[in-house]
Amino acid sequence: MPSPPLSIVQSLSPRIAVLASADVDDSCEANGCRGLDELLRPWEGGTERVSVLSSTLTPTIHPSFPLRFVSHASVCSNSTASLDADVVVDLIGSFVGARRPEEDQHYPLTRSLLLSSRPLAAHETFSHPVGVLIAVSTSTPDPLGTLAKLVGQAVGAGAQAQPWLDGVQVMRFFVVVHDVGKMGKDLAPANDLLAGVKKAYGPHSTLLVINSRPRRDDASEPPPSPDVSTHPAIPLPRPPSAEESSPSSLSQIYASALSSLTLSPESASSAMTASDAPSTPSKPSRRKLYASRLDADDVSHLAALVRELVVQSLVPWMEARVREWNEVYHANRRGITGRLFGAGRKLFGSRPASPAPGQAVGYNAAKGYYPVNAVEALSRRLADFAFMLRDYKYAASVYDSLRRDFAQDRAMRYALAATEMYGLSLLLSHPYFLPTSPPSPPAVPPAPFTNLQHSDITSWLEQAVLGYNQQGPASQIQLDAQRITVLYYEAWKALGEWRGVGTALVKAAGEADEVPSGVLIEEAAAADVRGGCSRIGGGKVGAGAGAGEGRGRRRQAFHLVMAARRYETAGLKAYSRRCLERASGLVRTAAWTAARDRIEYSLGRQAYTLGQADVAVEHFLRLLQREDTGAAGSQGMVLEDLALAYEVRAVIVQQAEGLAQIAKRAVLINQQLVAHRDLHERAKDKLALPTPVFDVNKTRIVVPSDNVAEGSAQRWADLESRALSTWDRKGKRPAKLLPDDNRVVASVGETFYVEIVATNPINAPVVIADLTVTLESSCASGDAAVGDVGVISEVALAPYETRTISVPITPTSACAVTVTAASFKFHRFFPVVQTLERRGKRLNTTKQQRKQPSYARDTARDVVVVLGGPRVEVGVVVDGHEWGEGEQRAAVVRLRNTGKVGVDNVQLLASEYGVVRLRGDSPHMPQRIPPHSSIALAASLAAGGTLDVPVLLTAPAAPNALAGRAAAVDIALLATYTAAGEPDEVGASRAQVAMSVKSDVTVTADVRRGKEGYLVVVDVRNLGNEPVRIDSVEAVSRYWKAKVAALPDSDTLPHQVLRTFLSVTPAPTLSLAINQPALVADLGRVLTGDVDGIAGPPAETLAGADFGSGLADWAAYAVSRRRWTVCQCARDFAALPTEVREKLVPLLDPLDLDLAVSYTVRGAGVAADAAAAAARSGTVFVHALRPAPRFSLVEPLRAAHDAPDAARAKPQRTMYEETGRIRRAVVGAVLDGPYGVDEVPLELRMATRATLAPAPHSDDGAAQAADGPATEEGKVKVVLNVWNRSPGVSARWVVRFDQVDGPAQLIGSLDFRGELAPNERRAVDVGLWAERGTVGLGWTAEVESGERREADNVNGDAEGWTVRQQWSLQGKARVEIV
Predict the structure, then answer these.
(1) What CA–CA distance (Å, rounded) separates 187 from 190?
(2) pTM of the shown model
(3) How far apart are CA 45 and CA 1224, in angstroms?
(4) What torsion do the CA atoms of 909, 910, 913, 914 make, to the nearest 10 degrees?
(5) What pLDDT does residue 1254 have?
(6) How far is CA 424 from the centre of its chain?
(7) What three-state secondary structure class fits 1296?
């Protein structure tokens, strides 16, 4: 059956003051109790199934109805015995500090002391006695007289110790105690006395039979002392039966009740604070026994008395008072005075300071209370009675009206008390707490409040807490705020409602650095993760205590840190550390670096202060991880603290080891020292850097003869494949040149290096000392036979610096070696061993490997040491790292034979064609695309010898480089050689040249029409930040002749443009086969699929005189032209293999025009001699300018290819779709590619000015002269220039003038036609009759290209003309008539 939490019901249950005669107290003391209230204490909460009438006279059966029995002196004396707030705080600190943190009793202890220490106050009546239990013993000489004195002492105006404490309207319950130990077992006198009491004081009386004398059947040995340790639980024992009853069990029942901080806070606290003298053999400690004289019948009588008190007296009396006071309350609210009194008082002032005699007294502002006879005090007692009877809705309505009245009277303490109880009553009005609600399964959570209801309830709590906290300074603890918050929290926990609970607990804790505040904030952290303040995990609000686990981690960690701070200030270091450790576990894997560092540092400092050096080192190590949010150098302080803690730890370890050795020699094994040493041994595994210093994935083995730092494996594979494809050595061609990437081979006596990439993980400088590596070998004689392993003494790393460190290893025997780990001292004091192992590729062969991930062993750290073989170390020596695009520099290729044998025929192959050239190479210009092959460096090189080969390096264009910015270019070099006298024993070595290439200038060219030929406009832009001098602009072409304008004798400043012009005309002295019949024949073979029959361009080599150009560096031009041609034909003939297209296409097209712009860069403001020495020069090339229109070379192939298609009825099909697709791509590349394009060959240009020829005057000219000047008009000849710009095809044309704008008229023929040979011009006169002015002429033209053949040609017309292509043109020109 549902019910509010027992902690709430017990703390706010009716209080019964117990007043007994001296004889009754003697009987109770004989059973170990100080009074009748303690004798009844265990049974005050055991009354079950109590029926209570609500304000609507509806009976409700409640599961239990607890009471609180207190002594009359504690509540009805002038000096109250309530615990002071400071005493309560000290008690909480003492009880919590006496428990270990892992017991998790901090909150139950705090809750019990807060709720049970509610003071006797005027603003609420929960601590006021609801009734008085008056007991008299039959052993008293004058029991009725004594009873009368007790009644006068307990009830009436004289019993009203405080003006706000009602001593009249209290329930009186009389008990006649019969002590069978004193008066015997005859109950007749007791019954007679009970009848007299009922006659004099009413029916609320009963008889209680107990015993205070030892029984005859008691054993001589007394029972053992019960467990009297304090605890926060609320024991609810049942009266034992006769079989279950025993002195020890009864004593333990009473001990549990009297030691409960919830039921007996005063007795438990006094027992805690009392200083008992230690026991000695001569003076043993006294055994504390309870209920040693009682039996099962006596206990059942006590329980029956409590039930009779509750069911027959207390509850009916309280119900009657509620009905009575309800009438008074409603009468006061219904009357005209009650309705207008509050408004009038609010508008016209407060009550008069001196009320008239007999008038109801209101709030006494000077003393801060309402008298007992005030309506407000009666209403407050009415609401409290309704609450204790669990009529929460009715109580809430009364509290709501009271809080308004109290606020109007400015009775703020009363208003806050009513406000807190109003919210609590609304909270307990939830259907879950109604006894009439059917019990729900444990797995089904109760229905939560709506957002509006929850916000309303929370707001009343916040108002009360805020008001309490404002009553004193921020550093002063307010127990009232914490007490009411705990009541709300208990109800919320029962409902599984966690919204805003953590915030409410933190607000109640305030800013006081006391233990209760820390306990509440720590409990708020637990509520945060249940409620889920930040959406990290799942769960719904109101889904129970386990809902939302994993959410609210950030706020939980923050509250744990707050609680740790309160605990530390209050002196509870263990609890502070527990909170910090929990917060550290929450933020350790999160991205909240600042919070994580603060927590770890606090834990480290605490551990260091407590002498736990191992734990301090562990926490300080966690702070040494990379974080970009901390201040620069902030981790340096942590590093210093770590050094101090580690030094202390080392001293402790040495002392422990020394003491352990002494103990062993003396055969006195100290278990504590051994355990301390074991602790240090176990801590070794935890003492590791959180961020590794070395990057395992970047660790590699470097052999000097194959020293390659970067480069993709695919690039080296392509370079190896190219070297093998152009193999021209003696002996058998090897299948592979380069070693396997996963296999490193070194020779005996050859030093190789383990390159380790070290990164400083913190923002402070560190030093890595005594760095070396650990090896595992397969040598039969052990690891000592591997060789010499170097040690790096010290390496200083700046904050976050990354550096590559090379550890040398010189093997002395042939075996397999594996590098397993690196060992060093971090900042010279902390030894670290970091493994260099990593996982290999994932295995996916068997079913088990696919189900359970498993990985192969990584072999990147394995070195195979062999006895010897040909080995040459290759390096390139060149000055400078910054290069300009196209710049050439003198360099040296250094060859060093590190092997044991000599080598022959050393050749070098570069990844970029022409980047490396031998000095003194004769410039030549082949017709064919030269192959990308190796260059010969040396014929032979003896063992141990060194040879420097002079070469020229040319900087290629950087791919994807931004204008004016340098880009990295890496040139891969592969050197091949054979062992002397053994042509089948081949070796290869790799090297790299790193360049930072910058485009100093950029060149753009635009071809325009000139008077006699063409005009090329060249713009050279300086992209750098230094002046650039343009040395020359040269044109290269076999067909075109260019004349360059004079260049200015000045530098081009940064970001400026230099413009120059070239006049280009056809070269009349050169006779070229511009139709390229050899290329057309090869393209025909491609169409037929006969790629093996491709002959290629002529094998002749051209010199500079063949081009008529003054270009100086023909070799650099040939390299650039080859690179452009290869890229262009790769785009145009992508369907053909590389070797086929490079054999098919000529290096230089006869009609192409290339430009070479040479420049020199020198620093601004530098003297001429110094600038010449520091200058760098380069050449930028522009390729494939076409001044003349293109014409198709493959028309014969097109005609031959189209003729069979027209004759076939069905299209030809292939077996495979991919083959057909490739076939179509090849046909399209040949017929519709760059060699199948026809552009308009003809250019029509109209003269812009014509001269007027005057017409003869008419007969009336004199009359016209008399009227004014005659109109000038006449015949005009406008010249139309027709130019066939094509160098290879003839053109026929027809021009028709069909539009005239202005004062003119066409005369003569309107149509003109003709035929022009390649490069032929013709002028046509067009007749006009026009006046002076501007005339517009519009024309249309039909143009067709073709060739003249014999008249019997079946493809031609009657005149033998064969049409290639046709175009329709339109134009309009404006002519000025002068």
Answers:
(1) 5
(2) 0.61
(3) 99
(4) -90
(5) 64
(6) 42
(7) strand
